[in-house]
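The data layer described in this paper is built around a simple, fixed record for each protein. We quote a single record here, exactly as it is kept in our systems:
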Amino acid sequence: MSDRIALGVIRKAHGVRGEASVEAWTDVERFSEVRSVTLVSPDERETRDVTIEAVRFHADRVLIKFSTIESPEELTAFRSWTVEIPESEAKKLDADEYFLHDLIGLTLVDADGNEQGRITDAYEGGGGVLLEVERDGRKFEVPFAADICTSIDLGQKRMTVALPEGLDEI
């Protein structure tokens, strides 16, 4: 596990000055609050420390100018790389807020303590956050909603759930 947290992913170059069009995985305003970031390749084998020179917002994306990347051609090499900061610089969460990466690996249990599966991924879907759950070698998605995910104990690595009947069969 990395000691960094991803703020978003570079999708493409924007304009002729080497700005990156970034899909935000956090509140877009967060990009205005940080200066030093690490770009991380999709396979996590390569990293590059860069400084954010400028940030602006366009439609549903964040446009970022990194100080050492001067052209769209240079930026092409960083397509699909994540923009990350040290976990120690992550924003402080309220008691009922969680980072998606903290949910991965939690065991789902029902109100009686019966195991319902294990979270293998958590991501933003079209209708909100979805949890990918594996049970008995099969995977299914669970909406991350308060009426389904009734309590979370990160210390015990458990999430109590009230799964709608048949959800794991869809």
